[in-house]
Amino acid sequence: MHYNDVIEDVGRVIDAIGVAVIVIGILVAAAVSCRQALTRREPAYNDFRQRLGRAILLGLELLVAADIIRTVAATPTLESVGVLAGIVAIRTFLSFSLEVEITGRWPWQKPARQDSEVG
Length: 119
Known about the structure:
Elements: H1 3-39, H2 44-74, H3 78-103
Helix pairs in contact: 1-2, 2-3
């Protein structure tokens, strides 16, 4: 087995883990939200969106890591690095968008102060 084959296999495994994280996250978010909706303890929609967003963010991070491993370690050509830069830019934009949706603020902004902290 050659070095490039091992790197490709490692990249595929990390890709599969990233997809699995997203799928499992969707299932867990749906199950928790259904349970909340049935017990009527609290609104389920916002919690579902937050759980789903977190799962997608984690999955995207793993997918980016797999792309970086396969592109930089296996075939570092100018074209492959350019394609990787485009993929990372798109996924970074998606990650920032999801972060704003989950927290209601940009990642570099400080959290809003709670009333209990004022004073």
